[in-house]
Design brief:
Aspartate Aminotransferase, domain 1, 2 domains, four-stranded mixed beta sheet, 13 helices, globular, binds pyridoxal-5'-phosphate
Amino acid sequence: MTDAQGSLMSTYSRLPVTFVKGEGASLWDADGRQYLDAMSGIAVCSLGHARREVADAISEQAHTLMHTSNVFCIANQEALGQKLCALSGLERVFFANSGAEANEAAIKLARLYGHKKGIECPVIAVMEHSFHGRTLATLTATGNARIQAGFGPLLEGFVRLPYGDIEALAQLFAGNPDVVAVLVEPVQGEGGVHVLPQGYLEQARALCDTHDALLMLDEIQTGMCRTGRWFAFQHTGIRPDVMTLAKALGNGMPIGACLAAGKAADIFAPGNHGSTFGGNPLACRAGLAVVAVMEENNLAAQAELLGVYLQEQLRARLADVSGVRAVRGLGLMLGIELERDCAELVKQALVQGLLINVTAGNVVRLLPPLVISMAEADRIIATVSELVRRFLEEKNE
Ligand SMILES: *Cc1c(COP(=O)(O)O)cnc(C)c1O
């Protein structure tokens, strides 16, 4: 470790590579070596690196006006808010600077919703293996003991259920009148790329309606075209009451958003919530540029098409490899679950010039930019299937 690296708190065990430049799905290190990026900074750079339209928008805005304050009106914030509402069918937006902050807004909104109904100790249903962030409220909502360890006392007011188990949700509602909201990811990302079973969201919608609770979707990873729709809930016919976004919304510019509709749209009043940076002219200008590029290039359709192709090809190539438990995902959010932990695959891929991610210990996760070419998709397929095959064969010997 260099002295400079030692100056950082060791919250990450980092790979020994520093990128100095990016373009599209490519990154270059200081020695000029090129890498193919199949993780997009964890679903952030969906438009690829150094996307011209976004860079130009940020640059122009930085030269014009970066920040004022939420005590004033902010035209870019209004424009992005309007755009996200039009795309999602939700009605109002609160802007934050990260995913965790977007979820904090959702959690506060749900609690206030409960208090306004006279519920003193509102309860939010959350899921096993979920991930919602690293602040105290969001790590409490997160279904991962390792993320929570050492940070107690955690918050009250959360009940955990098995992911995708609609019976468990129905039972909770039947037995607990204090449940004010359900918070769930349409596809769990950090938890290992698990897709909600068909019909779950429709049934959860109906339960929330019956019990006057909010259906809150964490679309921080699944949103912004990643799964083949603007938002993953659009694979179904339902509309959530609350949806959170971040990651790809700024293509690298930090920005988060909490959207609300119907009975959730008018919960916050002046003084209930706020953020110094949230929704500032610079971040929202980046968001507007991202939305425009996604719209103009129909990237939701692109993600769906490429996602099907990648999933089919990976499944075909790994069909005869014992030790591969599943190939699954939605759009360009893909997971390959192996029989054993495989974190070392990340380093092996790096040596091959490919950036991948491993989550939940034994799931290779692919989150390539939505703008990858067929040639790049083929390289990801070839390299990943070969690495997985070799990894499992060596271990079986
Ligand atoms: C990444 C992520 C978060 C947290 O976002 P941060 O910007 O890191 O705070 C929350 N929920 C989901 C589903 C995520 O993927």
